[in-house]
């Protein structure tokens, strides 16, 4: 990622990335901890999709950027059930639906709010105690319970790789996610039309593109290193989310 640091402006970084990624791949600029002034620069350079992982921070910046009415907002952080309603009110996409319980709650609330959010199911195909999400067998087993959730537009699979994989393992894991999406599309009993893959961050987006991702989620290569480390780390998985 070192060659990115010589590019001094967000506009240059957006343009550089555009040259490296096929036009069919949607770039979700991950703007957690990034001030709205820099997001405005990214918007001016053509970015229309922003990814945020903290609700309060995102809502504040949405107010600051309210004049940019064609932004699509993507929630990418772990969603606690007591925040689900706010997420539906403020985001068109939720990439990080990581359990049956939260999917069912979102479906219920979406009906109430009369919205039909686009969502991705978050999977982890390598063991990772620090990440949320379904393993492949868990997801296949729960498909019959996900399929009836009529108010969710379940568009694809999302993944975050664990740290410490070699590039070959990273590529292979992205390919496994792609293959899992195909398996689910073609499932004989409970298919879901999963056409999207949300994979690839600053350090691994090129491999995700090679594996056929449709959306990438770069942050630091566009906006620079984040200062508040605490905000970039997901909380420990826990079953104790307040309902
Ligand atoms: C922070 C984050 C990103 C962006 O990470 P970078 O390393 O800054 O590119 C992408 N996806 C998720 C889910 C994140 O939390």
Question: Could you explain how this protein is built, in words?
Answer:
With 243 residues, the protein is of the alpha/beta class. The chain has one domain (4-221): Alpha-Beta Barrel (TIM Barrel). The chain is 39% helix and 14% strand. It has 10 helices and 9 strands. The chain has helices spanning 10-20, 36-44, 55-64, 84-90, 100-113, 136-146, 167-185, 205-210, 220-223, 229-232, and strands at 26-27, 29-30, 49-52, 72-75, 93-97, 118-123, 153-159, 196-198, 215-216. The protein has a 7-stranded parallel β-sheet. Helix 6 (136-146) links the parallel strand 6 (118-123) and strand 7 (153-159). Helix 4 (84-90) packs across helix 5 (100-113). Residues 229-236 and 238-243 have low confidence and may be disordered. Pyridoxal-5'-phosphate binds at residues 30, 32, 53, 76, 160, 201-203, 217-220, 232.
Summarize the structure.
The protein has 243 residues and is α/β, with parallel strands linked by helices. It has helices at 10-20, 36-44, 55-64, 84-90, 100-113, 136-146, 167-185, 205-210, 220-223, 229-232, and strands at residues 26-27, 29-30, 49-52, 72-75, 93-97, 118-123, 153-159, 196-198, 215-216.
- Compounds present? pyridoxal-5'-phosphate
Main sheet: which strands, in order across?
Answer: 2-3-4-5-6-7-8
Number of helices: 10
For the sheet with most strands, the description reads: 7 strands, parallel
- Segments where pLDDT lies below 50 for 5+ residues? 229-236, 238-243
By CATH, the architecture is named Alpha-Beta Barrel
The gyration radius over C-alpha positions equals 17 Å
Distance between the termini: 40 Å
Helix content: 25-40%
Name of the CATH superfamily: Alanine racemase
